[in-house]
Amino acid sequence: MELHRKIVIYQILTRLFGNTNLTCKEWGSVLENGCGKLNQITTRKLNHIHDMGFTHVWYTGIIRHATQTNYSSYGIPTQNARVVKGKAGSPYAITDYYDVDPDLAENVDRRMEEFDELVKRTHQAGLKVLIDFVPNHVARQYKSICKPQGVKDLGEDDDTSMHFNPQNNFYYCPGETLDLQGVSQPVPDGTPDYIECPAKCTGNDRFDSHPQQNDWYETVKLNYGIDYTDAGGRSTHFIPTPNTWLKMTDILLFWASKGIDGFRCDMAEMVPAEFWAYATARVKKAFPGIIFVGEVYDPGKYRCYIQSGFDYLYDKVGMYDCLRGIICQQRPASAITREWQGTDDIKDHMLYFLENHDEQRIASDFFCGDAFKAIPALIVEALFQQNPIMIYAGQEVGERGMYKEGFSGRDGRTTIFDYWGLESLEHEYADRQALTPSQRALEAIYRKILNICNDERAVSEGQTFDLMYVNGLSAQFNPHDQFVFMRKFENTVLLVIANFSAWPKNLDVTVPSHAFDFLGLPEKNFVATDLLTNEKTELALKRDSQVRVDVKGYSGRIYKFQLTMDKNSYVLNAHNKDEFPPAHTAEHLLNQLMIRMFGTQRSSNAHIERKKSKMTFTLDHKPSRTEEKAIETEMNRLIAEDLPVTYEYVDRHHLPDGVSADRLPANVSDTIRLVRIGDYDVCPCAGKHVRSTSQIGRFVLLGTNWDEHTHSFRVRFKVIQ
Questions:
Q1: What is the 8-class DSSP label of residue 147?
Q2: Residue 112: pLDDT above 70?
Q3: Do 13 and 393 meet the contact criterion of CB atoms below 8 Å apart?
Q4: Most buried of 60, 371, 451, 617 (most Cβ within 10 A)?
Q5: Do residue 443 and residue 501 come from a single domain?
Q6: How far apart are CA 9 and CA 351, in angstroms?
Q7: Contact assessment for residue 139 and residue 79, using Cβ atoms and an 8 Å cutoff
Q8: Of the candidates 404, 419, 454, which is a domain's last residue?
């Protein structure tokens, strides 16, 4: 059975991500402040992203948009600075839907090829690719130079004498010239006036010729067959199919053919649901498996847009606003219950996030000033349901966004309009020695929580039970500060506590009879492991009784325990049931090899798959390249010895020397199956194995990662048959 994967998205503002220039001059040009390039998103960086627990990367700002930078020597039309926000320009003011932003290319003439290569690298790292689709508006000076042969440009055949025509691509103000008197920003000396007559209507549904400073004045609204100013108000004209529908669907199909895995659709609710039903059906038919993520802010429209083909929608005005309010001590933690209940029928379609390019950074002075205060919210949004979550690059190391970049100004957001560099990302991906202890600690927490999303099937596939309705205000529980729930898949249960308070708490968590019935829980004592700290504790589960737990301030507990252990079924690793026998047997060998080479314990976190496997060890030092090579060499020597793999069954109270019972749950069966690999290793396990080590194949060390803060050494490998 194929495992369900919880989608964990990493949003990268591509222009900023790889930029090593930290000049950071206000209103700086690309020559002064630099710009990240597609080829700077290297395999090493992508492996880091993958190992953090992400499944998808959203590359923001790929398609060519309006900029003040002159690329005319490459045949790219220049843009008038009066209708470009900032030196770099907004990624959402598209100038050519069939082109790649030249800022992102090392070789501008090869910009599309460099994007293709990025998609390939991303896939090779085990990640999927999302890009923006901007359907509602384009730059005022839209001009495609890369459109396929036979394709007509947007507006090319428009009747500009009409305010509205169902077959026009734009809306017009006939006889009126665009008035920019209400717009003010610095422009280079000698910039000519921008003349547009007749004026096109502005992207934020402003249907006159006088956009103001806070309007999307650099964009024009696309016409999908809705007359916004007729006497009846927003009458629809969808038959025959509007020309804009055809053009935009073709654009979606063009980018889907590049091998991407999905679209994040900007301001999707400003485009009629009927268009989305038309377009998504055609794209998904041609490219099965592609996903659509919609920016929709009106909860009243959620179900309509899901029915129209969207796989996932932003949960901004619900869960985001709720969690932000709790973090800032403006709302009680118990409010989370009301928010998830409001979308329970569409829960798998809601995308949770705490940051993106439109929102203020958690650590900014405009949010809460401390990234650690959001850890309880991260625990909730990551682990509460199966639905996707999104992290904005830099969030995991506490990027503050407190710069005055230029057009963006100091507003707690990371600019999307200016050329800039982020020291936090430069340190995370290029100079890790420069990371502060707090940044390392924060990143380690994010890594643990995000990996739990798919390492634990109770999260990616399991049932959820909200415990808040029986945990009211008491001396040992405060629903204003704490949120608690359970997850379950098969015999694995997670008890999750999020503490939004700054203070450590000793809590009594009530587990009601309904939870026992709904989840099929027995009344007994369990030995549980906190997945955040690896600490073990005993949980006494009884109907309508309390479980005593302690939790640190701005933190949480993720207690994992097993309900039953049938005869001969001790499961060391949650993935054993579905593991590939050669790789799983290699896991046993590698565990023992690391013990003998480094004096460590068996892996604290293993994920074994046919294509690629990962194991994490706690070591007293970072292995040298020579030591890493020795791991691979010794593994293949052991495999070549053709050591037999045998089984024996023993009483749990009479384990042989060298076999530890430390990791055995208290409720494990009296009979334990031991797996022996020659005289080299012995371990309790119920997984599937090969008959002898030569059947493993060749062991290939794919790469390693070292976390200095936690002394965690992650090994990535595969076996080749």
A1: P
A2: yes
A3: yes
A4: 371
A5: no
A6: 10
A7: yes
A8: 454
How would residue 686 be classed by pLDDT, with cut points 50, 70 and 90? confident
Name the pLDDT band for 662 (thresholds 50, 70, 90).
low
Cβ neighbours of residue 625 under 8 Å, at least 6 residues apart?
Answer: none
Q: Are 10 and 353 in contact (CB under 8 A)?
A: no
pLDDT in tens, 513-559: 999 999 999 999 999 999 999 999 999 999 999 999 999 999 999 99
Q: What is the pLDDT of residue 669?
A: 63
In residues, how long is the chain?
721
Q: Is residue 495 part of a domain?
A: yes
**Crossing angle of the two packed helices 111-124 and 43-51, in degrees rounded to 10:** 40
* In contact, 565 and 523? CB cutoff 8 Å: no
Q: Do 298 and 356 lie in a common domain?
A: yes
Parent domain of 651: 576-720
Read off φ and ψ for residue 272, nearest 5 degrees.
-60, 145
**640 and 688: one domain?**
yes
pLDDT tens digits along 627-648:
999 999 999 999 998 898 887 7
CATH number of the domain residue 115 falls in: 3.20.20.80
Q: What is the pTM of this model?
A: 0.81
Q: Is residue 380 part of a domain?
A: yes
Q: What percentage of the chain's residues is helix, strand, coil (to nearest 5)?
A: 30, 25, 45
Which pLDDT belongs to residue 229? 81
HEC letters along 666-705: CCCCCEEEEEEECCCEEEECCCCCCCEHHHHCEEEEEEEE
Average pLDDT over residues 200-206: 97
* CATH number, residue 613: 3.30.980.10
Nearest to 228 by CA among 307, 280, 173, 274: 173
Kindly state whether residues 448 and 478 are assigned to the same domain: no
Tell me which of 408, 438, 454 is where a domain ends: 454
Q: Would you call 116 exposed, middle or buried from its count of C-beta atoms within 10 A (0-12, 13-18, 19+)? A: middle
Q: Does residue 39 share a domain with residue 118?
A: yes
Residues 465 and 450 in one domain: no
Tokens of 229: 């100013």
Can you read off the two tokens belonging to residue 75? 């045949």
Residue 472 maps to which CATH number? 2.60.40.1180
Lowest mean pLDDT among 348-352, 614-618, 660-664: 660-664
**Is 428 inside a domain boundary?**
yes
* Lookup: tokens for 696: 């493993």
Could you give the CA distance from residue 388 to residue 264 in angstroms, rounded to a whole number? 13
Nearest to 685 by CA among 641, 631, 648: 648
Mean pLDDT of the 412-416 span = 98
Measure Cα distances from 517 to 344, 492, 511, 520, 544 in Å. 20, 16, 11, 5, 12
- The pLDDT confidence band at residue 1, using thresholds 50, 70 and 90, is very low
Question: 486 and 589 share a domain?
Answer: no
CA 540, 545, 550 angle in degrees (round to 5)?
Answer: 60
Of 9, 719, 709, residue with least CA distance to 356? 9
Q: Kindly give the interhelix angle for 273-286 and 243-256, rounded to the nearest 10 degrees.
A: 40
Percent of the chain with pLDDT over 90: 85
Q: If you search the block for the tokens 């994992």, which residue do you land on?
A: 560
- Cβ-contact 103, 88 below 8 angstroms: yes
C-alpha of 625 from chain center: 31
Please report whether residue 484 resides in a domain: yes
Domain count, the chain: 3
**What is the C-alpha separation between 679 and 690, in angstroms, rounded?**
16
Is residue 296 located within the same domain as residue 405?
yes
